[in-house]
Amino acid sequence: MAYATLAALILATFLPFAAFLLIMIFTRTKPALSARLSVGAIAVSFVCSVLLLTQNWTAPGPVEYSTQFLASSGLNIQFGFLADQLGLLMLTIVATISLLVQIYSLGYMAGDPGFSRYYAFMSLFAWAMLSLSVSRSLLQIYIFWELVGLSSYLLIGFWYEKFSASQAGKKAFVMTRAGDVAFFLGLFVVLLNAGNLGVLELNGPAARGMPHEILTLSALLIFGGIVGKSAQFPLMTWLPDAMEGPTPVSALLHSATMVAAGVFLFARLFPFFSLSPRAMGIFLAIGTISMLLASTMAMVSRDIKRVWAYSTISQLGFMIMALAAGGYFAGVFHLTTHAGFKALLFLCSGVFIHHLETNDIYDLGRLGSRRFKIPTISIVIAAAALSGIPPLSGYFSKESIITALAGLSNPLWLLAGFVGVFLTAYYSFRVMFVMFFPKEIEPEKVHAQEPYDAGYRAMAGPLIVLAAATVLLGFFEAPLKNFLAGIIVIDLQAPEHDWSHIAALVLALCGIALAWFEFGRRGAEQVGFIDKIPPLYHLFAERWYLDHAYRLFVDLVIDRGISWLLWQNDNKVIDGTIDELAGGTVEGGRISAFLQTVMIQYRLLAIFAVLVFLAFYFFFQKI
Amino acid sequence: MIVPLSHALILAAILFGLGVFCAVARRNLIMIVLGIEIMLNSASIAFVAAALRWQNLEGQTFVLFILAVAATEVSVGLAIIVYAFKRTGSFDPGNYSMLK
Amino acid sequence: MTSYGLLFYVLAAVTVAATAVAITRRNMVHAVVYLIVSFFGTAMIFYYFGAPLLAALEVIIYAGAIMVLFLFVVMMVKVDVPGEVMLPARQWIPAAVFGLIYLVVAFLMIFETRGTEAPLNLFSASPRDFALYVLQNHWFSIEVISLLLLLALIGALQLGKSRARPGTGDEI
């Protein structure tokens, strides 16, 4: 039994990696075979993860397989698998979304010259994220964390011929790396003070012995990695640019893998983080700021993928808020449901973009996005879930977040949450109304038939599955709560705040109504209230000038400061030294060339002289 | 009863000194090799005398090896000298300065 | 001092004189011929010291083969190299100084060493005894030496081979 679990874990995590290697080495020139390999591997992973989840549904404690990786005095690093409830849940989410996205990509990426490469990277991505979710120690998490970053870089810059794509890939890589530096430093702090990097140990006794200031410091440093990875304030601007990648990649990136890794890490170390209330307060603030900022940005964007990107940031902010407010279950549950409906949103948008070849929501509406029945219905379901409309999954998870926020003593956070709910509903239905109730249409396009080729079917299948999941997942709230209660004490009898649920729901409906009034009703001019206030509009459209601030920062500190110093160092110190060294060598050669008289006989003479002196030495030594 | 060992050693020493002088002082590659031969020869004399002094054939055996090594050294050395002479047209070691 | 003992000094004088003349000859043919005389003297000293086989080998190899090789080389290339400074002062003065120091030290060392002043006993190792001794105790070294000679043969052949490419007329 135990071996079966281990075997399933190994299969689930390493098969995608094997697929990656096989594709890169053998089948790069055979796209069909590559796709089959990759999809096959992730399908087996999916089956294994589902089996594991059902097997361990009632398991009392975490299942763990580990070996000592490094052990020296006071150091203890284990490698292996940690299959507790959270890990298995994440494993299943990742495997499911990856499988669906890969099937979807069969249609979306068909005919792309880099088809094999795409599937290889997808497998790499899946491997890294699957392994991350069942990692035993923080070091192992860090390794796969970086691998996730690497593969997302590869995928965002997948169309590397496009300048903006490769730039976006670089931006994503560098900005997340900035957070990862903090993460790594945090690991050091933890390792030095707790002598252990195991997840279980840190959540358990090992961390309790740490001094309070150190605990707060390490929590903040590790949270730096989360900020980078989950695109929270102030490292949030890479995520919208990451839309340059293929849309399925965005779907994967935004739902289950890249950005979810940050929230997952938060949930992973939740007991550790909650030892430091001060750090939790900061996390709460960061989550709230990101959530509100991103929501405002989403209100004015015309690019459909960017809207969803901003919404991802804001939903991640919600999760961070929930976790920081102590709502462990709320955060994880929202992570789960969000993975479903956000993937659905992106995949649906992908269908429109693929067939209509534009990202602009007004153009999409004008070109008749309505005729694609399945994506249209699915995206409306997903948007409703995002807005928190019952009985969809998003409603339940948002409700639990609001509950968690309402439990805080300061009502400010709850207020921010309400604002977020309102804005979310407003911007998501703004997109819906603009796309499906266009002001003017191009008739010949609109009345074209919905295409029913193999590619379309490959794309529509995952949409239906995800839509079903979005509808049904909300009803699994109670079982999930019981399941997750296995690893952490969740107060199942949390005080209910009925009025706050109703308020949230009413606010969401208000948001939709406002969107309908401005964009949906007959004769609406389809201009949002923000657009009418130019300063606000520019502020939001320019992303609160965050990129400009970075630019300024980079110009001032890095270009003028550090680069200048390095340049001086290069010119004066290093070049100077090298020049001196070279000159010295030449001079030394010239000097030693004087010694070289060409005459081998002088050397003979020298040998002879030495012999004579040696003879002297031995002679007088004997006497 | 013949000469003492010391006289034989003095002979070897004088011959060795002459060989060294030849090798160091003459500006001619062939003469340098000749000087080396003289030195080897003086060593042979010392060995043979020592073999007689201690009534041991080991010394004579060594001379046999010296002969073989000398023959080897001369054949290869002279071949190199001839080769070098073809390149530079001179036996003067002072002319071999291409590497400087 | 017996008359037999006197013979050593005669031989030694001849050897040293021949060597000294040889190393001062400008003409290399003369030098080689004088050196042959010197080697003959050495061979006789070997015989005198009871090594008849070595004496024969000295004549055959040193005075015969090696010197003939020298003669060949000297005669093959231009004999008198014009402009050779016989004994440049920069070289022979230091050589002579060090040589003198060396001789003084050697004399001192030889006379200071106990047990060298006793006259040597007459003794002769017959070629048969010598050969038996060598082949019983040093057969492996003999093999190594034979290998060395083979290598020398190959090396000399390789060096002596003309490097001219066919048709280019390039000598070296």
Tags for this model:
heterotrimer; A: 623 residues; mainly alpha; two-stranded antiparallel sheet; 75% helix; B: 100 residues; Helix Hairpins
How would you sum up this structure, described in words?
The complex is a heterotrimer of chains A (about 625), B (about 100) and C (about 170). Among the domains of chain A are: about 260 residues, no CATH class; about 80 residues. Chain A contains 27 helices and two strands. Chain A is globular, with a radius of gyration of 30 Å. The relative contact order of chain A is 0.07. In chain B, about 75% of the residues lie in helices and about 0% in strands. Chain B is elongated. Chain B has three helices and no strands. Chain B has one domain: Helix Hairpins (Orthogonal Bundle), CATH 1.10.287. Among the domains of chain C are: about 80 residues, Four Helix Bundle (Hemerythrin (Met), subunit A); about 35 residues. Chain C contains six helices and no strands. The radius of gyration of chain C is 21 Å and the shape is globular. Classes of the chains: A mainly alpha (about 625), B mainly alpha (about 100), C mainly alpha (about 170). Chains in contact: A-B, A-C, B-C. At the B-C interface, helix 1, helix 2 and helix 3 of B face helix 1, helix 2, helix 3, helix 4 and helix 5 of C.
Distance between the termini of chain B: 58 Å
CATH fold-level topology of chain B: Helix Hairpins
Binned strand content of chain A: under 5%
Number of domains of chain B: 1
How would the global form of chain A be characterised?
globular
Total beta strand runs of chain A = 2
Oligomer: heterotrimer
What would CATH call the class of chain B?
A: Mainly Alpha
Distance between the termini of chain A: 88 Å
What class would the helix/strand composition of chain A place it in? Answer: mainly alpha
Radius of gyration of chain B: 17 Å
Task: Give, in spatial order, the strands making up the sheet with the most strands of chain A.
Answer: 1-2
Order of helices and strands of chain B: HHH
Summed over residues and divided by their number, the pLDDT of chain A gives a mean of 79
- Count up the helices of chain A: 27
**Shape of chain B from CA axes?**
elongated
Uncertain segments of chain A: none
Largest sheet of chain A: 2 strands, antiparallel
SSE order of chain A, as H and E?
A: HHEEHHHHHHHHHHHHHHHHHHHHHHHHH
